[in-house]
Amino acid sequence: MSTRFQRTADKSLNQKHAKILKTCLDRPENKYCADCKKKDPRWASWNLGIFVCITCSGTHRSMGTHISRVKSVDLDTWTPEQVENMVLWGNSKANLYWEAKLENRRPPESNMDNWIRRKYEMKSWVKSREIPDPKTLDEQSSGELVRLFINLNCFF
């Protein structure tokens, strides 16, 4: 495959991924940071399947890639597997798992770093020690996003 053709293919795939991520961010549950609840997150922990603000993304990065793998929604290149995980999870489903035993769903305004670490490192409020298949977490399907993947021939 020629280098020029490869660059065109890569650019096309990146555009498809950007469109899918934008669609994910347009969903009501993803319009706010999964942790601090601030509006318009532009970062994501792709292995956790959550969208976060720039401040919370710093805490996620500091926990290490064995816990959270952070990328910019706008600036980074995404693999099909990473995009797929964002579609399958999203903030609502992820918080159904990570905050299952949390009584007050409002995070503290001070010391978010500690709160995020309790949530993901210590797993203080998880539903179970084993991370479930996101399809089992709620009744609402991510069907329209899955169809978008198929229509764009990204993967599956």
TrEMBL record:
The keyword Cell cycle does not apply. One of its GO terms (cellular component) is cytoplasm. SMART domains: ArfGap. Keywords: GTPase activation, Metal-binding, Zinc, Zinc-finger. It holds the Pfam family ArfGap. Residues 15-133 form the Arf-GAP domain. InterPro entries: ARF_GTPase-activating (IPR051718), ARFGAP/RecO (IPR037278), ArfGAP_dom (IPR001164), ArfGAP_dom_sf (IPR038508). GO terms for molecular function: GTPase activator activity; zinc ion binding. This is Arf-GAP domain-containing protein. It comes from Glomus cerebriforme. The lineage of its organism: Eukaryota, Fungi, Fungi incertae sedis, Mucoromycota, Glomeromycotina.
